[in-house]
Here is the input.
Amino acid sequence: MCGIVGYIGERDATPVIVNGLRKLEYRGYDSAGVAVLENGKIEVRREAGKISGLETLIQQSPLHGKIGIGHTRWATHGVPSQQNAHPQVGSTGKIVIVHNGIVENYLALKEELSSEGVEFKSETDTETIVHLIEHFFAVSQDLYGAVVETLKRIRGAHGIVVLSSDYPDQLIAARLGNAGGIAIGLGEGETFIASDLPALVEFTHRIVFLDSGEIAVVKKDSLEISTINGKKVKPVVQNVPWDPISAEKGLYRHFMQKEIHEQVRSLSDTLVGRVEFDNYSIVLPDLKCDQEKARSIQKIMITACGTAAYAGMVGKILLEKIARIPTEVIIASEFRYADPLVDENTVVLAISQSGETADTLAAMAEGRKRKATIWAIVNAIGSQAMRVADGFISMQVGPEIGVASTKAFTAPILNLYMLAVYLADLRGTLSKTRRIELVRDLLRVPGLAEKALSHEDEIMVLAEQYKHVRSALYLGRGINMPIAYEGALKLKEITYIHAEGYPAGEMKHGPIALVDKDLPVIALATQDAWYEKMVSQIEQAKARSGKVIAVATEGDELIPPIADAVFWVPKTPWLLSPVINVIPLQLFAYHIAVLRGLDVDQPRNLAKSVTVE
Ligand code: AGP
Here is the structure.
């Protein structure tokens, strides 16, 4: 979950690394550090807290060199402190590492190393790695071999980069399992390493991704990759189209705000290359699915975490309604422990913005073990999920930096809608007229999102009124039930206000006991098949003095007199309504967090990619 950066070339390494860390701060932000080789000696600067603290430290005590590594941390072992920050330094001061992952057997290794007289200075599991490298290096005087031996001893999933003052012309980078990626950016006479693309695309678009079990010797003008078992691997250079501007905040105050507004564009970008306008059909070439395959599918099991799982819940309804394929949603952290009923006629469909979420990758691996076809809906290009899937749909929305997912929630809903239309078409269960109708509806979505966003000022007023509440209840039914979950998740993760999403029909079975004048109830009551039921739900909450904010369709005259306030959204075909209905809920959470003076893009205790179990 941490961010890793490395640089070797002719520039001053420190600003390149710190700039990269800033771009990756969303991955972890409790402490940070840099190590640079300066006049043959490794200089380290580390600081608890955000990167700005590290920058101040570097201003006070600068370090210069042409090779170095850096890290922004999300603590797993040991509190966020200067001592526990990376780079972690070995006993000789000649080897330093940055690490992403958890050394599962670190206690045993620590005991072993301590018995040899090694003194540990931090509480981290990472420190065992650097001492192990030193231990093997002392014997062989071969850094590469020492790193390989170390990788063979540590258990768990890891991304690491090693710098040694004995090897001033190289960095060693390695990836074991799914602790997040290692991407190597090739420049002219310089090479960059990062755990994620935003740190690289400003410098180069020529990227090589390490696979699990691979180790690379990175020099300023060469790159050699092998497996840890010694097999040479030919680097595959990918041209990554992300533009660096999309990883910047631009005129917006926060990435989250930018990404909410960007949805007009991202919802249209995700359609590019997928909609054939001459006959209103859908093409999904990267899915590699033919008619025979489509007809053989007996079940789809969607697996994902958090926001992505809520998008999957909407997808279940879309796939069942449009393609008539039985679909289940199973939270990825449960998948491998659930003994799931999966066989060769099942598609396991993973949804992930980062494509690096450990639980989602583990669910995909479990599906593979049980002979299912593995598909993925992924945003991050070159990510593990994209690479291990048999077929994929790329979200095509550019980097999402805000920890709270927004555009990577709405795009996969459109992807799932397209998938449903595509499969129904291949299976021959969709009439041409219906397909044209569905695709026409799809094309209206970006415009509808723009209309939903135009109500931001009214939402800001409500955010001001509700910014001090202690708890909130989000209610929805049918296809908008997952939107209640997602609305509640957005509120809790960035405002720290307790919120619950609940199926509205379940209120009378318990939660209605919570309703009183202090509890805002946010009710998704747009005009669909569940509209009347939601109206009576609002009445029931009002009868118990609840404060109701309804998400309602523009022009609705029934809702305003019974609700305390309304989030207006444009009239939208019901199958696509979740994409539009979530927008006011994203804005509401965002503005409350701003009014409460919170760090919207980097909420406490969270990280963007959850690469540990
Ligand atoms: C969203 O706001 C969350 N921060 C989180 O639930 C996220 O969606 C989840 O961790 C899954 O991430 P992924 O899409 O990268 O797999």
Notes: Residues 305-308, 352-354, 357, 360, 403-405, 493, 609-610 surround 2-deoxy-2-amino glucitol-6-phosphate (CB under 6 Å). The mean pLDDT is 93. The chain is about 35% helix and 25% strand.
